Amino acid sequence: MTQEIEIGRSKRGRRVYAFDDIAIVPSRRTRDPEDVSVGWSIDAYQFDIPFLAAPMDSVVSPRTAIMMGQLGGLGVLDLEGLWTRYEDPEPVLVEIRGLRPERATARMQQLYAEPIKPDLVTARLAEIRAAGVTVAGALSPQRTQELYETVVAAGVDLFVIRGTTVSAEHVSKNVEPLNLKKFIYELDVPVIVGGAATYTAALHLMRTGAAGVLVGFGGGAASTTRATLGIHAPMATAVADVAGARRDYLDESGGRYVHVIADGGVGKSGDIVKAVACGADAVMLGAALARATDAPGGGYHWGAEAHHTKLPRGQRVHVGQVASLEEVLYGPAPAADGTANLVGALRRSMATTGYSDLKEFQRVEVVVAPYTGA
């Protein structure tokens, strides 16, 4: 039953929850962590871990996409990022890392004004494919129609359409909007699309034929969407709502399963655990992987919203460096703060509560227990 609170005489609001507002409850059964499977598959592609590296220049380069694949996950390259604008983006990355905070946004807007080069899109995806890992690339809805043929011709395995929010019914007087349903139907590649943050929006995206839906809106460490637009989607409720849409669409479609991928606000291992508990099949990680010493951000983190030409809705933030990418994923963890051995933490939480795989773990008991700090 939906709980609404009176905001004023003319407005009521629904009570929703962030990951910090909930906790997981142990059951009567426990398991050995070694007996727990954290494997995940989408379409024909199988992964050892349910982690996608977010398409952000501070997180994924062709090199780290390859590393992520070799470590059992999926690296998604931003096909509108520095690697498709510059033949050698390393000097640009070095400059971004060294910018003074008050100068960062303006300078990044200038650096990202360099045009996207289709031949670099092809070259970067070919580099990842040559390593023998699953190839995934991301475009915004605005660039998809312009560049998708180049992306598909380069041999992408999974196509990601990712924006702050993506709807199945975008309305525009100025440009012909992307017809998601027609686009996905005609594309011979599985598509993951998002973000969505509500039951209705997610259900409409599922009806387009998407293989997966990204859940989140302005919840990441580098996002300022709440401050700039006043829009925010607390992730525990958002994931649970979209998981409800997945359940109902499964019945509506006669058995078609659409994967729910939490994207944003999943900064530490406890957040990953709670995302799966709320119904996520996998998680897309930004800041959590930007902390790796291998990450191209060099201890800094930013997304595409940080260099928007007219209204930036993100910023470059310092996240520090904690360990190598392999250690961030598999340990050993150098500190007890949830920033490393993310796989081990997920596996141990599942074992402690008695669940053997991710689908089972989505049934774990959850309580409302706001976290107030140690």
Outline:
This protein has 374 residues and is an alpha/beta fold. Helix content is 34%, strand content 16%. An eight-stranded parallel beta barrel has the order 6-7-8-9-10-11-12-13, surrounded by five helices. Strands 1-2 form a two-stranded antiparallel ribbon. Strands 3-16 form a two-stranded antiparallel ribbon.
Write up what this structure looks like.
- The protein is of the alpha/beta class and 374 residues long.
- The two termini are 32 Å apart.
- Strand 1 and strand 2 form a beta hairpin.
- The strands form 5 sheets. The chain has an 8-stranded parallel barrel, surrounded by 5 helices. Strands 1-2 form a two-stranded antiparallel sheet. It has a two-stranded antiparallel ribbon with strand order 3-16.
- The longest helix is centred in the middle third of the chain and has 18 residues.
- The chain has one domain: Aldolase class I (TIM Barrel, Alpha-Beta Barrel).
- It is globular and about 55 Å long.
- Helix 1 runs parallel beside helix 4, helix 7 packs across helix 9 and helix 10 packs across helix 13.
- The protein has 14 helices and 16 strands.
**Straight-line N-to-C gap:** 32 Å
Q: Tell me the total number of β-strands.
A: 16
What is the CATH class name? Alpha Beta
Q: Which strands sit side by side, in order, in the main sheet?
A: 6-7-8-9-10-11-12-13
Cα radius of gyration in angstroms: 20 Å
Total helices: the number is 14
Alpha-beta classification: alpha/beta
Helix content: 25-40%
Largest sheet: 8 strands, parallel, barrel
Second rung of CATH, namely the architecture:
Alpha-Beta Barrel
| Assigned CATH superfamily | Aldolase class I
List unreliable stretches of 5+ residues: none
